[in-house]
Amino acid sequence: MTTNTPWDAPIPAPDTGAADAAWQRQMQLTKPPGSLGRLETATVRLAAQQRTSLPALERVWITVFAGDHGVCDEGVSAFPQAVTAQMVRNFAAGGAAVSVLARHLGATLEVVNAGTVTPLPPLAGVRDEPVMPGTANAVREPAMRAAQRDQALALGDGAAARASDAGAQLFIGGDMGIGNTTSAAAVACALLGASPEQLVGRGTGVDDDGLVRKRGAVAAALARHGDDRAPLSVLASLGGLEIAALAGAIRGAASRGLPVLVDGFIVSVAALVAVRHTPDVAAWLHFSHRSAEAGHDAVLRALDAEPLLDLGMRLGEGSGAAVAVPLLQAACRLHGEMATFESAGVSDGG
């Protein structure tokens, strides 16, 4: 790593005192203990992260990172790479799924172009900061050089810094990049010691022949890469610019004491990179949903994660995380606004 990267900033520990106080309040609310299930545990986790017995989620920050993938040369996607830049334009115009959801939530939404093949004009809400015009073909050579990986990591950390400086209470990272399920699957296979048959799915909807090509490309990339499982080496060799930026954002949010709601397969792989490098990052993560993408279950198990939702979603963009935000908001409202047995004059059964 270069010396100017924020990747090695220390990770604070959540506040166990705030968690204890939140649990005590949960025991006093007018309900049987545990009757709100995982809404209770999620609230207590947020209390520890926000260092208060009464957590809130009114200010949500979403950053979508875009980047193209050289592995598309292997015929791994049902869509051409031009779609990545076209979708960035769609984000800017407010027409993408995450754009709609951000408006619904009143969340801040920004898009960071980490490296599309097609150059972008100035667009409202888009930070055009390309590291390179897409990664190299990971089947033939490392997707990124170490310096390029570090630059992408720093892009993500910058997004976390902007969110923290704006007073965000929750960070969501999203992805856009044709071919990125191939790159993410390759990273996951390398980190977990799994086979392409276990983790490579259909992504944008490739047919049977496309799935064979996709698994073959991942197998070839893994063979070229070798047995190195060091997270940052794997990221540079097999990953994508937006995956690296997401890993940097997740770690950057954790280093600033900002809770992260992890989206689906791509973002979970980025979280796996961050946690494998710095295990303390895990204390700052919530998981939104179980993706329909084939490899997501294995990545969730590796992260000891239990997502909030299972809706068969596989869109990316941070859309699954955005859909889950109202659940966490409801959990916080219940925790903060329900009456206690004492205030309501209700017997607690004691």
UniProtKB/TrEMBL annotation:
Its EC number is 2.4.2.21. GO terms for biological process: cobalamin biosynthetic process. Pfam families: DBI_PRT. The active site is at E317 (proton acceptor). GO terms for molecular function: nicotinate-nucleotide-dimethylbenzimidazole phosphoribosyltransferase activity. Residues 1-20 are annotated as: Disordered. CDD domains: DMB-PRT_CobT. Keywords: Cobalamin biosynthesis, Glycosyltransferase, Transferase. Pathway: Nucleoside biosynthesis; alpha-ribazole biosynthesis; alpha-ribazole from 5,6-dimethylbenzimidazole: step 1/2. The keyword Transport does not apply. It catalyses: 5,6-dimethylbenzimidazole + nicotinate beta-D-ribonucleotide = alpha-ribazole 5'-phosphate + nicotinate + H(+). Catalyzes the synthesis of alpha-ribazole-5'-phosphate from nicotinate mononucleotide (NAMN) and 5,6-dimethylbenzimidazole (DMB). Belongs to the CobT family. PANTHER family: NICOTINATE-NUCLEOTIDE--DIMETHYLBENZIMIDAZOLE PHOSPHORIBOSYLTRANSFERASE. This is Nicotinate-nucleotide--dimethylbenzimidazole phosphoribosyltransferase. The lineage of its organism: Bacteria, Pseudomonadati, Pseudomonadota, Gammaproteobacteria, Chromatiales.
